[in-house]
Structures are given as structure tokens and as C-alpha cells.
From TrEMBL:
<dbReference type="Pfam" id="PF26557">
    <property type="entry name" value="Cullin_AB"/>
</dbReference>
<dbReference type="InterPro" id="IPR045093">
    <property type="entry name" value="Cullin"/>
</dbReference>
<dbReference type="InterPro" id="IPR036317">
    <property type="entry name" value="Cullin_homology_sf"/>
</dbReference>
<dbReference type="GO" id="GO:0031625">
    <property type="term" value="F:ubiquitin protein ligase binding"/>
</dbReference>
<dbReference type="InterPro" id="IPR036390">
    <property type="entry name" value="WH_DNA-bd_sf"/>
</dbReference>
<dbReference type="GO" id="GO:0031461">
    <property type="term" value="C:cullin-RING ubiquitin ligase complex"/>
</dbReference>
<feature type="domain" description="Cullin family profile">
    <location>
        <begin position="1"/>
        <end position="132"/>
    </location>
</feature>
<protein>
    <recommendedName>
        <fullName>Cullin family profile domain-containing protein</fullName>
    </recommendedName>
</protein>
<dbReference type="InterPro" id="IPR016158">
    <property type="entry name" value="Cullin_homology"/>
</dbReference>
<keyword id="KW-0832">Ubl conjugation</keyword>
<dbReference type="GO" id="GO:0006511">
    <property type="term" value="P:ubiquitin-dependent protein catabolic process"/>
</dbReference>
<dbReference type="InterPro" id="IPR019559">
    <property type="entry name" value="Cullin_neddylation_domain"/>
</dbReference>
<keyword id="KW-1017">Isopeptide bond</keyword>
<dbReference type="Pfam" id="PF10557">
    <property type="entry name" value="Cullin_Nedd8"/>
</dbReference>
<dbReference type="InterPro" id="IPR036388">
    <property type="entry name" value="WH-like_DNA-bd_sf"/>
</dbReference>
<comment type="similarity">
    <text>Belongs to the cullin family.</text>
</comment>
<dbReference type="InterPro" id="IPR059120">
    <property type="entry name" value="Cullin-like_AB"/>
</dbReference>
Amino acid sequence: GADLNQDYITHCENEGIRTEFHFPVMMLTSNWWPVTVSSMFNISNELLPRLTHFKKYYMKRYIGRKLDILLQYSKGEVQTLYTKKKYILQVSFYQMNILLLFNEFPTMTVEKMLDKTQIEPNIFMPALVSLIKMKILNCQDINPDQLNEHFQETNLSMNNNIRVNDAMKNDKIKINLMKIQQANPMNKIDPNSVYSSVFEERKLAIQAVIVLIMKNRKTLKHNLLLSEVIERLARVFKPDIPAIKKCIDLLIEKQYMERDDKERDLYKYLA
């Protein structure tokens, strides 16, 4: 609550820790809020030290308690320092981590962004799409005319190049990007095309997971790859084996990976 926030600020001041940004926390008890802890990912260098410091402070203050950080319910504000007119972007924690990548890299492919953040693809892609639709980020491979209400994850590919839009313009100083991410584009799709759209989104998620696994492992046996893909996506949906095999073939065709010449059930990642 408010007392904990103020006590933490005082604690930081006493330790001589400079607070570059406001860091309010809301404490929920598991008895009253039966929530699921989100899967972890690579939190940005700007945010990780503060999160780690607060967790140490809390665990020392309340010995014996368990503290989980619910990233999926977290939000914040970031300021654009690269635009002529300064904007404040109200973003989800996932959107924030995506944006903060560009403090380090001027341009990245979708694949590299996924690899750097390690955010689950089914969470990452809607967050990225929301930032592109609002023209906070530019996709150099997408025609601006495509950025309408029907633009979605399936319009992007792993090798698309993304960068910040330093020419962005908006009538508002404060821009709420969480509303865009939360909006469900499926509501505006013809019911007859829902199955096809879901299938395409799942296919993209499977491909993204395969690429991440192979990039980390470099080489992997067929059955182990299948098992790991199913395990990684189990929280979202259960991919069937034929769908995974099709995605593997597609990624081989796109030269993301290849079969070993001698061991045909062994895959190699191609950088």
C-alpha cells in the first residue's frame, strides 16, 4: 500500500540510492487474489535492478513471506526523448520492455526482439502489433496503408525489421497504448474466418518457439524438439504434432534451420 511505497522511498534515500523513476507497487494477497504468476522473461536493464532491489528489501522486511511479481498486471509510463514533441506513453510491462530495447539497438528484426526479451510469442506479438498500429514503432517491410484495424500478428514475419518512429505525431501528449493491446480484433472478423485466423496465429507462435529453442540449443533431435515445443506452448494451447512438423519444414525452407546430412532426425540452427 501507500505506507510500503513511502517506506521503500525512505529506505532508498537512507541508502543513498538515486531513484531515476517513480516505482509504486501494489501488494495483493494470494488469499484474496487467486492469480497466476506470469512466465519470466528478460526484463530490461533499466527496470531489473529496481525490481531486484525492491524484492530484497521486501523479503528482508517480511521474513518468511513469499513475493511473486505479477508482470502481466504491471504497467508504466515512458517518455519519448527522440521526437520533436515529447510524448508520455502509457504502456503494459510487456510493451515497455519492447520499447526499452531501442535504447540499445536502433533497428531489430522480430526474431531478435523475441530472442532478447524471451517473452512468450503469444504475449509478445500482440504487444508489438499494438506499438506498430499506433505508429510508435515502424516496420520497414510493411506498407503504411496496411496499418488499419485488421492489421494483426499474421501480417508480421520473423525477419521483418522494426525501429522507432522518430516522426510520430499525435494530438495527445499522453497516449494510452494498453487499450490498443487489450482490444480484441477477433470481434470484428467474420465468424467464418475465425478458425483460419486462429490457426494462422498458432502457426506463427509455433514457428517463433521453434526458432527460439533452436537458437539456444544450436542442434537438437526431432523428438526432443517436438517435446520442448509442446512444453513451451502448453500454457497457451496444445499444438498437434503434424502442425509442428509443418512449421519445422517451413523454417527449413526459410533457411532458419536444416537437417543433418548424416542424421536426418537431427536439426541444426542456421545463424
